[in-house]
Prior knowledge:
The complex is a heteropentamer, with two copies of chain A, one copy of chain C and two copies of chain D. Chain A has 14 helices and no strands. In chain A, 74% of the residues lie in helices and 0% in strands. By secondary structure, chain D is of the alpha+beta class. In chain D, a hairpin with a 2-residue loop joins strand 17 and strand 18. The radius of gyration of chain D is 24 Å and the shape is globular. Chains in contact: A-B, A-C, A-D, A-E, B-C, B-D, B-E, D-E. Chains A and B meet through helix 2, helix 4, helix 5, helix 6 and helix 8 of A and helix 2, helix 4, helix 5, helix 6 and helix 7 of B.
Amino acid sequence: MIGTRSRARRAAGTGTPLVVVPPAVLAVLFLLLPTLALVVRVPWSDLGRIYRDQQVWPALRLSLESSLEATAASLVFGVPLAWLLARFRFPGMAVARAIVTIPLVLPPVIGGVALFDAFGRAGIVGGEFRSVFGFDLPFTYPAIVVAQTFVAMPFLVVTVEGAFRIADRGVEEAAATLGASRTRIFLRVTLPLVAPAIVAGAVLCWARALGEFGATLLFGGNSPEVTQTLPTLVLTVFADQPADAPALGLPLIAVALVVLGLLRDRWLRPVAAS
Amino acid sequence: MIGTRSRARRAAGTGTPLVVVPPAVLAVLFLLLPTLALVVRVPWSDLGRIYRDQQVWPALRLSLESSLEATAASLVFGVPLAWLLARFRFPGMAVARAIVTIPLVLPPVIGGVALFDAFGRAGIVGGEFRSVFGFDLPFTYPAIVVAQTFVAMPFLVVTVEGAFRIADRGVEEAAATLGASRTRIFLRVTLPLVAPAIVAGAVLCWARALGEFGATLLFGGNSPEVTQTLPTLVLTVFADQPADAPALGLPLIAVALVVLGLLRDRWLRPVAAS
Amino acid sequence: GCGSDSDDAGSSPSATTTGKPTGSITVFAAASLTEAFGTIKKQVEAEYPGTTVNLQLGASSDLATQITQGKPADVFASASTKNMTSVTDAKDADKPRNFVSNTLEIATPPKNPATITTLADLAKPGVKVAVCDAAVPCGAVAKTVLANAKLTVKPAASLQDVKSTLAVVESGEADAGLVYVTDVRAAGSKVHGVEIADDVNASTTYPIATLTHAKNKPLAKAFVQYVLSAPGQQVLRSDGFSAP
Amino acid sequence: MTLRVDGHVRRGGFELRVDVAADPGEVVAVLGPNGAGKSTLLRVVAGLQPLDGGTVRVGSTVVDDIAGGVYLPPQRRRIGVVFQDHRLFAHLRVVDNVAFGPRSRGVGRSAARSTATDWLARLSLDELGRRYPRQLSGGQAQRVALARALACDPAVLLLDEPLAALDVQTRAEVQGELREHLGAFAGPTLLVTHDPIEALLLATRIVVLERGGVVQQGTPAEITGRPLTPYVARLVGMNLYEGTASAGVVAITGGGSLVAPAAPDGAVLAALRPSAITVHGAAPGPASARNRWRATVAALAPLGDRVRVTTVGELAATVDVTAAAVAELGLAPGREVWLSAKATDVSAYPAPSR
Amino acid sequence: MTLRVDGHVRRGGFELRVDVAADPGEVVAVLGPNGAGKSTLLRVVAGLQPLDGGTVRVGSTVVDDIAGGVYLPPQRRRIGVVFQDHRLFAHLRVVDNVAFGPRSRGVGRSAARSTATDWLARLSLDELGRRYPRQLSGGQAQRVALARALACDPAVLLLDEPLAALDVQTRAEVQGELREHLGAFAGPTLLVTHDPIEALLLATRIVVLERGGVVQQGTPAEITGRPLTPYVARLVGMNLYEGTASAGVVAITGGGSLVAPAAPDGAVLAALRPSAITVHGAAPGPASARNRWRATVAALAPLGDRVRVTTVGELAATVDVTAAAVAELGLAPGREVWLSAKATDVSAYPAPSR
Lengths: 274, 274, 244, 354, 354
Ligand SMILES: Nc1ncnc2c1ncn2[C@@H]1O[C@H](COP(=O)(O)OP(=O)(O)OP(=O)(O)O)[C@@H](O)[C@H]1O
Ligand SMILES: Nc1ncnc2c1ncn2[C@@H]1O[C@H](COP(=O)(O)OP(=O)(O)OP(=O)(O)O)[C@@H](O)[C@H]1O
Ligand code: MOO
Ligand SMILES: [Mg+2]
Ligand SMILES: [Mg+2]
């Protein structure tokens, strides 16, 4: 009893401002309702049939694999890019920054078209791609990963860039005086400092890749068991058997609950908080 | 001369770690190439005809309007939600947080299905919606805004929540001792503190809304001049005149360059940096 | 002339005393009808001065869903009876009538890089084939055709409607696509057509109907009538459609 | 309005358990080693750290009483706080930082600004009004934080090492300013400091915290005269010895003894001022100084116009001598010397029971 | 290896322009008001702030020389720094914070850990090794920062108010520890502090910065004996007067005069120790003290076993008296008194030309 009351009193004074409650509650309802409706509308008794008939499991596996690979690629390439954008100064940096974040606003379908123009058979580096890798990129599994990375990486970059900007440079200076090389400062001081932002950015990026639809459809080709991801499958099912479509959301909702529920609280807690 | 050298020396010691350069350069190339290819492939001489024939201007206007409205709605409702998620503690908060961020991983097409299930004619609150607002939501302009908000708001929420978490509570305590009410602390201390994250989150949210395609297509219906946004128009054009499609990316690229190029450097610089 | 049986005369600006259709309608039509209905639209508008016909083209299945979800429209022309049935089952369309049918043809890029000459060539390894998604009419027909020919083809891409399928071929990203003969004809020199033998080819039937909640029933009926009429049928035939 | 904190609170593995009061107009200096709980005590009074048990009262108002279900948040306590880490608002100019309190309490924009400007002037910060906190040096920032707390017209004032980052000159000026303000201030003040001189200058009473509890409190004279712990002795610059007294002689725990006629029998503490000890080059004859002992010089340090000599031996002592004495006796680390002290200079009093 | 900084650098509207050197084994205390540029000077030496002109040398190595195109980054300077705001790594445990330097310089994990553990033990931080910085009090954090810098075995040591946040007892202990280490330390040390006693205790030479420039430097004795600015005088606890000397009499700028037989003719500064001034209840007769003037008591403050009296009047002075004298003369703010000082206690020397 006392324990609970005392805990409630902890935040008193700087606790919840009432002004945030009504909009926050509305936001919860708004975001919750469609998901709830989807779950309500799932034809539970038909679930077995649907999952058997429709190519759900291969599509889910493909979605998870490709989105994780796209996230990994985004981390490997996007975090260094974010660092440069945040810290490196040269004239025209603002333009460079805008250019690399264009995929953010490019509608995914145009993204797909753009990927064709770049890496397709007739794309500007399509011939080079073929001679290096020995195959044409479009309509292959790598094409999905490329499409998802193209669309999702900017989300990671923007999130992490902001963190690099506000990260305390003081500790980096301290590390420099302790003899740490720039690379070591980056890996051992700056990265841990912005770890919460990297996790948040990776979650956004992964979510964007998992839900990616337009570019994947076009550039990947939506071929069952090869390039058909869950989002593209949904479109097919929705066209064919609209009543079955809600059932396809379930695995993703489950994944989301597990990933966001477990991971967020553990990893998004910043080390610096008291 | 000396001035430039001296400026280059400023960051020495904590300057660019070489390890970030190769992946960052690859990332730039990867993100830049498709956009570049798109621009190269634009049939410049036909531009006038394309923009006249295709419903580009109404679609662009609709896209800009709806994405800005969705961003505004996300700010009004999402920032308070982010605050609650970051600060308010009760058992099951992690689950609540996962639930409201589900739209993040829900493929937009399923999002569209879910919106039907919730707000559609036969949706679980469809009747209530009709009796309150006097019309059915699907395939109307408000439907686009709703779809974009549903899909894009979580991006804002996740970004801003992270910032609320790491924001320095010390200054909030100081404000409380100075007599500031919780609301005043929220508005005058906490919000300015996380302003860079709010701007970053709003940009992500806006970009996501501007590019939104799956849910808009389904729930909005892609009706020219009413619910056809640029991304859904692209699909139509791509099916009809694939060669014209790259041209439709231009206005968005221009908008992106202007918004991201101008706004970012000014607003993403955090007040706390030295 | 047609008598007005619109449900609500007050909300229907077209319900004039003369009975001559006026105002505007929205026609939902399968993507494969893009060119033919484009022409018919102009002819109807010329026939009834002052009227406007808005065409919305897409995969028949998508259009069917939109109609059952309450998107306002006046006429639905589907590329398969299946999608029309889902609309009539929902009591959203009046009695449909079949107006044309359509068969498939192979489309390749103009230079035919994979040298496709028969349907069987599609099964050759390394040939990238684009088809419509099995959920849309042209995809269903493609399935039947391949089954008739006892061919196992693993398509590289299954796209959302026939026009996207054609677009992928046009851009050269696919070596061949299974599309309607009408699409090959409409694409002109942008693709090269390879005919499919009649004994394995299959067709789909196109029904058309006015919609229950049409705002402008008179013009809707006039449009359907025109499609079924000789001038309308002539437009469709010249685009490659067959009799239903 | 008397301030009184009587309660306890846990913070991680640390527990603060105190009963501290401050009368209106009284300045209570809170001293103690790092981690003793000084900042925690101030947080409790400010309402930032609710008690786990006990009460906080301001005048007749109970502002925190978990058993009684009372808890006033910081906003409603009118308690001005200057934090150890200043906590200025990075996004506001200095003048708006100072105006923040009045604004929060409903004062109009221009009135609040002019109050702020006044306070900035009083603390000689006029020129910095339009700067942002990041453009201030550490000391300037701390002074602005002080101005911000004072501009709120608080009922109780809490200062957590307010002058720690100030240079001597500024510190002396601000100390003077602070003395003035604290003198005119009707409410009670708690002042955390590590600087004993600051405590002596500004405080009317001193509370010493160690390990979460009060180990000694009283007027500066009481504290300096009778330090009860080694920390306090060091703080006030006294030599302190623990021992057992019997018939005017204190047997020091650890060896040696001191003559102290007035010592009460039993466990005592014996305190001796550094300046009351005399250094001799050789064994002094039987003079008036009844305490004599051998020691070895460990370190010498100039201290204003005197020199502080640290000695080790049976009775380790710090001794203040003149520079002349150093030269005359050839004092240097390692030098063997004799120390003497008059019995009347040894202040012996009962040791606190622990 | 002598450290020498001779150059200038701008930082916003502020310019630092100095020529400072420190010999091997020498501890140079850098004092100065807030914003004087002390931290900036340390940043220049550390390589965190390249000079806009001039050079920094460590021994015979030029580490910064813009004209010569030389600039060694901090990593390659082997300079240990303790920052004013400690700057611990929030994500590393205390022991790993301390092990960070050795690790960065290529020492193996377990060797670095044991070096770290040694240093933590030396600074009595053993128990805190497994804590995170956020679990430390301000003073503890500062001590860890000190351990971290020392664990790097630096060639030059830079300390920016390293002990500011420590309580007296801990400070005394760490000062002792620091004295020991600095004594054994072969390289030069720059120590920024606001505490004159700390400077006197730890430093062999003092450099005073004001407004970006060096206003005085020398041994502690030189500085305390001949303060050249009001700031320095306040720092060392002297009364300082500016004036013009002629035939052994100094006419003080602003009124009054002091007899000082040894004063050189011309613009001089006259310094007077607070304990060299005597307070009288009434006008003293023509005794040996040749300087006498009227003054008004402004404030009294206990200061160890004496009382510091602040007076105002023609020659404002701070005077240290015994508690007995306060009682005897009935000293209290507002009391009119006479002050006297022997001519030989007035130290007059040429004023620096500005
Ligand atoms: N958030 C926390 N969680 C756990 N322990 C804490 C926390 N904050 C402080 N402590 C501990 O509480 C004790 C008291 O801390 P407090 O800050 O009150 O000390 P202090 O007397 O102000 O010290 P200083 O002179 O160094 O400022 C310390 O031992 C510290 O380690
Ligand atoms: N980033 C900056 N931009 C502009 N001015 C600055 C900046 N950092 C410091 N300054 C100014 O430079 C001057 C010197 O600052 P510095 O930190 O070296 O002073 P300091 O002597 O260390 O003071 P303190 O005793 O308060 O720590 C100050 O006037 C300060 O306002
Ligand atoms: O409905 Mo279609 O015309 O087969 O894409
Ligand atoms: Mg503290
Ligand atoms: Mg400094």
